[in-house]
Predict the structure.
Amino acid sequence: MTTVLIVDDDPKLLMMLRRTLTYEGFRVFSATNGTEALGEVQAHRPDVVVLDWLMPGLDGIGVLERLRAAGDKTLVLMLTARDAVESRVEGLETGADDYLVKPFAPAELLARIHALLRRPAVVARDELLTYTDLRLDPVTRETRRGSRAFSLTAKEYDLLHYLLRNSRQVLRREQILQEVWGYDFGGEDNVLEVYIGYLRKKTEAGGEPRLIQTVRGVGYVLREDA
C-alpha cells in the first residue's frame, strides 16, 4: 500500500486531506509541524510527503532542506499559498518534486500524487544505490548487504538495480519485465518470479530480513516489511 505523509498546521485541511487520501486507498500519516514531520519520515518511510510551506517553527523549506541534505529522496509535493514564480522556483530548487498552490481541488492533489508515483527515478549512471543495509555500486558492480558482499549475474544485477532505483514504489510485473528484459521480451512466463527468487536467496543469505516484497496480484516492491 502506498504511504503518504501529510504535513500541515491547518487542522481542517489536514482532516480533509486525510479523509480524501484514505478514501483513495492510501495509507496516511500526518504531522502538524516540521519537527514532527522529520520524525514521521524516519518512522514510516512514506512514498510521498505532502508538505505545507508556511508553518511556525521549522517550515516546509526547512524540512525539505534537511531531508535532501541527509540524502533522502522521498517524493515531496509542496503546498503553499505563495503563487509567485520566485516562490515556486525556490521550492523546486530546494528539492521539491512538484508544487501545488492553495486553494486547490482534492482531485488535483490526487492527480499530482499519482503523477509523482508514475515518474521514473532519475539517477546518475554511476550513483551509489542504497536502501537500508543493501548497497549496489554501479561503478564497481559490487553488491553488499551490510558488511557481507555477494555476486550477481548480469540479469540479477539489472533487476536489483531497477528495484533499488525505485525503492518503496510498487512495481507492476509487466513494468519490471518491460524495463529489465525489454519491450519485445518473449521468455518464460515465470522468469521474473525465478529471478526474484535468486535475488532473495542472495540478499537474505546471512539471515537478513526480506526486502523484496510481493504485492499480490500486482508485482513487487523493495521495502522493509511492515
